[in-house]
Amino acid sequence: MRALPVGDGALLVEVASGDEAQALHAELVRRRAEGSLSVREIVPAARTVLLDGLDDPARLASELTASDVPPAPPRARDVVELPVRYDGPDLADVAAHWGIREEEVARIHADTEFTVAFCGFAPGFGYLTGLPTRFDIPRRATPRTAVPAGSVGLAGPYTGVYPRSSPGGWQLIGTTDTVLWDHARVPAALLSPGTRVRFVPVGAA
Q1: CATH topology for 2-65?
Q2: pLDDT tens for residues 48-67?
Q3: Where do runs of H (alpha helix) occur along the chain?
Q4: What does the pLDDT read at residue 95?
């Protein structure tokens, strides 16, 4: 673990893997909730956690680098279910890359319980982990200029759902009507780091 100063009141903590980043994020959120850590923002990413609004970042940096990443806490009981139609334009390409039929892509994806590792790219967009590494898949060679809102895509080790129409290069395998980001909702984002997610098929692949 390495802690790098960012300005006067922030730290960027680097760890070795996505799993360690998720575990560290959960531990820091727990410490803030119990009152043993004073921090304004805790922002996880693929292999880092950013802490902003620290009173004494140097002291926390020393404490973190002298310790191991804590084990991941038990997962939350609640699971967000996202109805999905496995009708994406890249479903056949994903099936070919995996060496299976299109129906099997849908089955494998729907049988997986995902966890939101971190959020980014667009408001409400969560990077979901859970598929075994053998199902990692590269982004499209040529990104689309406009991906429809609700598109379910794969890229590298991640699954994601586009909360709004935007350019994107992920491999699209399905669509959902669930609203991922609603500024009138509290919280506005349906998905946040640590959220458990299942995709529920609502139509044939």
Answers
A1: Gyrase A; domain 2 (3.30.1360)
A2: 999 999 989 999 999 888 88
A3: 18-34, 57-65, 91-98, 102-110
A4: 97
